[in-house]
Design brief:
about 290 residues; alpha/beta; binds nicotinamide-adenine-dinucleotide
Length: about 290
């Protein structure tokens, strides 16, 4: 398939490389990052998009997505699919889908989970919003870049799934970390805490697959000095998107709101920026109730 790929950063670079390695004809563009091996460099986003059957974007946020979409939509051939894999606000996803539709293009919002490791290994999960036909067109590419793709509904549904998932992740990681810090102060051994909780009703992905306590459970960023992994500032971005969406539809999300405030404090006023999001554990462990 002829593919335009715009945004070749930590995620987009390995995703584009995997498509090229699978035999697709990939033209890439990024303002800063060079094209990975196998991807043909284009001189602009519009040039990368011209003649492509699928144009994929992997960009930092909704404002940049809107700007890139405005540039590339006029260059994309009729009948092609514009597929945004970035994590952005639901409204930007819906607005870009409407603009694409008005220009005779099909589109998908298809954010991912799985992080940089999943992008490199081709094991991402895609959650897609858009038409059946757009999903069917892009599915073979999702199968190269990922291990699972779920068609969640109409435009915006992929972003909705992503921010709901990550709101749960932020809340459960915060709860898991504060529970470990409480266990410490109660004199409970961390390994015993893990052995019980990981097989009891407190289990979660945060505890079982990504344990925030070093030396316990499977390998995780905690075992590597809390080097990300999934950086605390990216968790904060997604939590803020969840709260922006909750406000827009008048949804009551008190736990999401608490987790957002906590990660904002950690990233903006403490030493959380550049650390894995599970580094809340040493933060809690070093504090008392009112510190
Ligand atoms: P990144 O900052 O490494 O990459 C973004 C790239 O976009 C950069 O290379 C930047 O130069 C490029 N860019 C910015 N403006 C551009 C423009 N106008 N035209 C062309 N290129 C432009 O970020 P990332 O970690 O690759 O994340 C990309 C998206 O994926 C984000 O929305 C992020 O929230 C989401 N995401 C990231 C992860 C992760 O673990 N890193 C996991 C899931 C989802």
């Amino acid at each position: 398939m002829k593919i335009g790929f715009i945004g070749l950063g930590n995620m987009g670079g390995p995703m584009a490389a995997n498509l090229a390695r699978a035999g697709h004809d990939v033209a890439g563009f990024d303002l800063v990052t060079p094209c990975p091996d196998g991807v043909q460099p284009a001189t602009s986003a519009a040039e990368a998009a011209r003649g492509a059957e699928v144009v994929i974007t992997m960009l930092p946020n909704g404002a940049i997505l809107r700007a890139v979409a405005a540039e590339v939509i006029p260059a994309i051939q009729a009948g092609a699919v514009l597929c945004d894999c970035s994590t952005v606000d639901v409204q930007s996803a819906r607005d870009v889908a409407a603009q694409a539709g008005a220009a005779g293009l099909d589109s998908l919002d298809a954010p991912v989970s799985g992080g940089v490791g999943g992008a490199a290994a081709g094991t991402l999960t895609f959650m897609a919003g858009g038409s059946d036909s757009a999903f069917a067109t892009v599915l073979p590419l999702f199968e190269v870049m990922g291990a699972k793709a779920v068609h969640c509904g109409a435009a915006g549904a992929g972003q909705a799934a992503k921010i709901c998932n990550n709101m749960i992740l932020g809340v459960t990681m915060a709860a898991t970390c504060e529970a470990f810090a409480l266990a410490d102060k109660l004199g409970l051994d961390r390994q015993k805490m893990y052995d019980v909780v990981s097989t009891s009703s407190g289990y979660s992905w945060s505890m079982n697959a990504y344990c925030p306590a070093p030396g316990i459970g499977p390998q995780s960023p905690a075992d590597n000095g809390y080097k990300p992994g999934f950086a605390a500032e990216l968790m904060l971005k997604d939590l803020r998107l969840s709260q922006q969406a909750a406000e827009a539809v008048d949804a009551d999300t008190p736990m999401g709101q608490h987790a957002t405030a906590l990660y904002a404090q950690f990233v903006e006023n403490e030493d959380g920026k550049g650390r894995d999001f599970s580094a809340l554990l040493p933060r809690f462990a070093a504090r008392g109730r009112s510190a």
